[in-house]
C-alpha cells in the first residue's frame, strides 16, 4: 500500500511519535510525504520516503495529484484545525481530492491508529472505487 504521511508544523512531533510506535507496520509500505515531514521520517526513523515539496511550496498539491493519478492509497494527515495555515487553500484542496477519489484519510492520531492497526486491508492489495462524477469522464 502507498501511504502519504503529512503533518502541519505543530503536529509534526505527534506524527513522528505515532510513526515510531507503528514503525514495523509502516516499513512494508511505500511512504510519500511532504519535504519537511519526509525528512523527519527519514532522519528520526530511518524510513525510506518519497518526498514532495514542502506543503506551502506545493507539496500538498503534489500529494493530491498522486491521489488523482491512483498512486496513493491512503493519507495520514495530522493537521491542526486550530491554526490558520498560510497555504490553507492547498490543505482544503488535499482534503477535498482525497474524499473525491475515495481515498481513506485519517486526520487525527486515534483515527490513524485505527486505520493502521485495525484494518485488514492495510497489508493487502485494495482496489478502491474511482469517482463516477460526470466531470471526471473524458470525451
From TrEMBL:
<dbReference type="InterPro" id="IPR011607">
    <property type="entry name" value="MGS-like_dom"/>
</dbReference>
<feature type="binding site">
    <location>
        <position position="87"/>
    </location>
    <ligand>
        <name>substrate</name>
    </ligand>
</feature>
<dbReference type="GO" id="GO:0005829">
    <property type="term" value="C:cytosol"/>
</dbReference>
<dbReference type="GO" id="GO:0008929">
    <property type="term" value="F:methylglyoxal synthase activity"/>
</dbReference>
<dbReference type="InterPro" id="IPR018148">
    <property type="entry name" value="Methylglyoxal_synth_AS"/>
</dbReference>
<keyword id="KW-0456">Lyase</keyword>
<dbReference type="InterPro" id="IPR004363">
    <property type="entry name" value="Methylgl_synth"/>
</dbReference>
<feature type="active site" description="Proton donor/acceptor">
    <location>
        <position position="60"/>
    </location>
</feature>
<feature type="binding site">
    <location>
        <position position="12"/>
    </location>
    <ligand>
        <name>substrate</name>
    </ligand>
</feature>
<dbReference type="InterPro" id="IPR036914">
    <property type="entry name" value="MGS-like_dom_sf"/>
</dbReference>
<feature type="binding site">
    <location>
        <begin position="54"/>
        <end position="55"/>
    </location>
    <ligand>
        <name>substrate</name>
    </ligand>
</feature>
<feature type="domain" description="MGS-like">
    <location>
        <begin position="1"/>
        <end position="139"/>
    </location>
</feature>
<feature type="binding site">
    <location>
        <position position="8"/>
    </location>
    <ligand>
        <name>substrate</name>
    </ligand>
</feature>
<protein>
    <recommendedName>
        <fullName>Methylglyoxal synthase</fullName>
        <ecNumber>4.2.3.3</ecNumber>
    </recommendedName>
</protein>
<dbReference type="GO" id="GO:0019242">
    <property type="term" value="P:methylglyoxal biosynthetic process"/>
</dbReference>
<comment type="function">
    <text>Catalyzes the formation of methylglyoxal from dihydroxyacetone phosphate.</text>
</comment>
<dbReference type="Pfam" id="PF02142">
    <property type="entry name" value="MGS"/>
</dbReference>
<comment type="similarity">
    <text>Belongs to the methylglyoxal synthase family.</text>
</comment>
Amino acid at each position: 500500500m502507498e501511504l502519504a504521511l503529512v503533518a502541519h508544523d505543530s503536529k509534526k512531533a505527534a506524527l513522528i511519535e505515532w510513526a515510531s510506535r507503528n514503525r514495523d507496520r509502516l516499513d512494508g509500505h511505500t511512504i510519500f510525504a511532504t519535504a519537511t515531514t519526509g525528512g523527519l521520517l527519514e532522519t528520526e526513523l530511518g524510513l525510506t520516503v518519497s518526498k514532495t515539496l514542502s506543503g506551502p511550496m506545493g507539496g500538498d498539491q503534489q500529494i493530491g495529484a498522486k491521489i488523482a493519478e491512483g498512486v496513493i492509497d491512503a493519507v495520514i494527515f495530522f493537521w491542526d484545525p486550530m491554526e490558520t495555515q498560510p497555504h490553507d487553500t492547498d490543505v482544503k484542496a488535499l482534503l477535498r481530492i482525497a474524499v473525491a477519489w475515495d481515498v481513506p484519510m485519517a486526520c487525527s492520531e486515534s483515527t490513524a491508529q485505527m486505520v493502521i492497526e485495525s484494518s485488514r486491508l492495510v497489508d493487502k492489495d485494495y482496489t478502491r472505487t474511482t469517482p463516477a462524477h460526470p466531470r471526471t469522464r473524458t470525451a
